[in-house]
Amino acid sequence: MDIGKNKVDKYEGYKNYVNLLMDDYRKDFDKIEVYVIGSSKLNTSEKNNCLLQVLDTFLSAQEEEKSVIQVTGPDLKRYCDDMIYGERIYIYKSSRIFFILLGTLFYTAYMQVFPRIFDAIKLGDMRVIFKTINFGIADIILMLAYICIPEIISFVTKSQFENPRRCRRIKRYTYYAIWIITIMIYSFIKDNDKSSLMIMSFSKVSLILLYLGLINFVILFLMKVLERGSMEEEKEAREEKYLDKLNTQYQMHVERRKRSNKEPLEFESFKAKRVRNNFFTIAMFSIYLLIFLLLAVLIGRGMYIQNSIDVLGIIFLFIIALLSILMTVSIRFFVLINKSLS
């Protein structure tokens, strides 16, 4: 990375160039530095690399006499998150959405089922737990609270993100305050309003929970894989290993051609052929992934219509989830390899 006439060879070198930043650039970089260093998503090497990229961008923009807001945009926290997560930002957001959906239904079902446990103990009849679940206005309020909590906390802490300790404290107090108020409203409405907006069987609610749980598991697993795959050391090692393998295969190709008295392909032509083969592999794996997802939908739909949770069906869903992860990781691997070969 070039900074003026100087060249930085190590990640830790970014601190030697911070003093080159002026005014607003220095203020915003200090905020970004605190936020990135306090992140649990990156290791030390990745944090320094991230800050090095930010510093490079800031110095280039400063030389071009751009304002800092032209570089970061109006939301400095979003700029930091984009730098931290990179290509993983969309998967991270997807995981949050599915986690919220799962948590919403889980807490709503929990508030419905938990009191039944005491009723079952008091009546001596465990069948009370598995009766149909009635969703009313109180449950809608509970769902809305759970969905809104992340957005409310994000709004409240947006201006404090550069101070991790204060930010965590505000998050904690805001979280508990919203939940206490929500539970009070929920309990009051539940005691005074017995009407039902929707009635669902216990097995259907459990099946929806299972589906959301599997989806969340797949996304979280992919996030972990992508976190490892996006590390510079991992990328370099993967590409180097693949290129070594490609060179070995090319040497074998040359030897086979010589034995057959045929002209071997040029290395660039051989590489272009491998890129085409990889495209075909990506297309096939994408088709397999769609088939697996279709099977998951059909199995789940069958159990939902029959109003029963089949053990074999659950096992198949779990296997399909693992295969979907494998296909997705493989597709991403070949896409990245093709980028490096092109």
From TrEMBL:
Transmembrane segments: 97-113, 133-153, 173-189, 201-222, 279-299, 311-335
Protein's recorded name: Uncharacterized protein
InterPro entries linked to this entry: UCP029876 (IPR008316)
Gene3D superfamilies reported for this sequence: c-terminal domain of poly(a) binding protein
UniProt key word Transmembrane helix: yes
Pfam families membership: DUF1048
Keywords for the protein's UniProt record, in alphabetical order: Membrane, Transmembrane, Transmembrane helix
